[in-house]
Amino acid sequence: MTRHLIIVTLLATLAACDQPAGQSTELANPAATFCIERGGTYNIQDGDGGQTGICTLPDGTKQDAWDYFRAEHTG
């Protein structure tokens, strides 16, 4: 009986951890979101020091997405 109770409790606990489909727990990158909201496109480039997010602005200018975010974001 105790064994069955432990198994039922374990299964109930695991079922409570299930995340509903369609809900993401990931947060959006603020620099990427800001770039896209301003009409740009966001891409990730691999470099010697790792990956860098690049914002390509509507006029074709390419800029580090975080540098653009920090310079232009006011609030």
Structural descriptors:
alpha+beta, 23% strand, 75 residues, single chain, three-stranded antiparallel beta sheet, Hemolysin, DUF333
Mean pLDDT: 86
Terminal Cα span: 60 Å
Radius of gyration over all CA atoms, rounded: 22 Å
Strand order of the largest sheet: 1-2-3
Shape: elongated
- Helix coverage percent: 40-55%
Q: Residue ranges: pLDDT <50 for 5 or more in a row? A: none
Largest sheet: 3 strands, antiparallel
**Helix/strand order, N-terminal first:** HHEEEH
The proportion of residues in beta strands is 15-25%
Count of helical stretches = 3
Class inferred from helices and paired strands:
alpha+beta
Count every beta strand, where a strand is a DSSP E run of 2 or more residues: 3
Pfam family, one: DUF333
InterPro entries: DUF333 (IPR005590)
Protein name: Hemolysin
Sum this structure up briefly.
The chain is of the alpha+beta class and 75 residues long.
Fold and architecture overview:
With 75 residues, the chain is of the alpha+beta class. The protein has a domain at 28-75. The protein contains 3 helices and 3 strands. It has a 3-stranded antiparallel β-sheet. Strand 2 and strand 3 (62-64) form a beta hairpin. Helix 2 (30-37) crosses helix 3. The termini are far apart. The model has no long low-confidence stretch (mean pLDDT 86). InterPro entries: DUF333 (IPR005590). It comes from Ruegeria conchae. It holds the Pfam family DUF333. This is Hemolysin.
Topology:
Elements: H1 2-16, H2 30-37, E1 41-47, E2 50-56, E3 62-64, H3 65-72
Antiparallel strand pairs: 1-2, 2-3
